[in-house]
Amino acid sequence: MGGSFRGALVTAALLGAYPVLVVAALCPWPWVFAAACAVSYAAEAKLPKSVAIQLSRVHLGATVRFLTRETAAVLLLARAIGPESRWFALLAAGLFLCHGMRAVQTGLALYLRRCHALKPVESRNLGVVFPAAPPEALLSWRGVRLLYLDVLPVGLTAAGALTGAAWPGALGAGAALLLMAGATLVLLWHVRRVGPLADRRRVIRAVDERVRAYRPEVLLYFSGPADSVYQASMWLPVLAGLDRRAVIVLRERALLGGLGPTTLPVLCIPSAVDMMNFRGLDTARVALFASNVGNNIHMLRTPGLVSVFIGHGDSDKEASFNPFTKVYDEVWVAGPAGRDRYRRAAVGVPDSAIVEVGRPQLAGITGERPATPYRTVLYAPTWEGWTDELFHSSVAAMGPQLVQALLDHSVRLIYKPHPLIGHRCPAARAAHRRVLAVIARAGQPAGRVATDDLYACFNQADLLVSDISSVVADFVASGKPYAVTNVAGRPAADFRERHPTARAAYLLGRELTELPEILAQLDKDEDALTEERRALRGYLLGEGDAMGRFRRAVDNACRRAGRTSGRGPVDRCPPGVAC
Questions:
Q1: What's the pLDDT band for 86 if we cut at 50, 70, 90?
Q2: 503 is in which domain, residue-wise?
Q3: Most CB within 10 Å of its CB: which of 187, 392, 401, 549?
């Protein structure tokens, strides 16, 4: 309500200032003009974006508003000093030239932005060198932002009118013109350097040559919104530990900024045509897919390439046995539980296509309780999913109450929400904000929102409280107690049968009546479900060295690709390339 009122007040001040400017210029009243100028500039700076868009739709956009103010300044000078003054002509000509220079500068900035930010192929860790982009300030200060430079001629015209001087306004116009001309000259210098980026084929060829020299064998292919890039990032250390050359292939530019750190080569190819014609990936034998999205088709259609769905964590959610998964040559799961999910779901994935590879990411998870004098609980809920009937997330149903109850029991709380919480459901988004408010009121060290990665949070916790998701399956690797929220209120036996990851979990209903007994288990060396968790770990995650199993699965897939495509062996380190 307060924001709407302020927006209306700013809009009224802005629109009301222009008639005052014109009247003050005609009278002439320099003091009134100066005051109206100050109000109009201040209101312009505070104008809500939504209001600015509406004003543009009724032909009162920023350019019209600034031109009106400048015209009023010219009128003021004509009435206060006289149009026969040479300074009057210089002011009018200077303002005219400023708008022409603004158009040139904006055009150059947009051209450079397109060349640098919209390259057909982006790359990292491949040694491809292109001209550096101009300073961001030169590219972002364009268009409407440059209009604010007219404060120099308009403001100095008002000041000159107060003293009867005509020259300050012309001087201000000259100063604004010089600033724009300087920025334009710098951009022109960058335009001369940007030639290689203006040629799409040249850019693609430069990157393609480096990828050909690298000769990738395994690629991780990922497409999706920027907030889903964690699904690819979790596999980066695993791929870096392979004995084969791996490359990351992304499809959206926004993913590049969010991708985790890696020394592996990274490509981003937004265009489907460029993607399907990029020959540098021809040596790849295996394509790994971390999510099911429509853009996968551009890689799935590549002949002689073994396609493998590796997902982004095993869970009992429907995403871990999606019928679409049958389009892949192989499906890699963590342990026997993953194989059983596909058998029960009968979605068309043959048992022979399923390979158990463990979860190599979990190597750093420890089973030791944190050496602290207090109990630490990690609350890591999942997001709400695409439909309400699935009862995926506990945040909307019980999140704020659960967090408050944990704090009331004097535990140290770590809140690690799923990155997509509130993505679809307003109720979940509102509940998430209430959880943040509860934690903020409690303050540290009672509660905090995690900024470190999920597995680091595992090692800091005595107990996990989560929903049915891959978080639960991964936490089982620690052997520590965990509770799963039973949002739908199913009978315990039915819930555990439906969700095997909860077989060794304490169940927590919406009323939280089980919470005191669950927390009491933390005071024991071995709680009531310790043995069940030990047995469940092998079922969910498999036995043995997960990284070794993953490497063997990659090797087998590469051999399968070689047999089906007739490709010969690929040397580990081609001549002239550091591996």
A1: confident
A2: 367-541
A3: 392
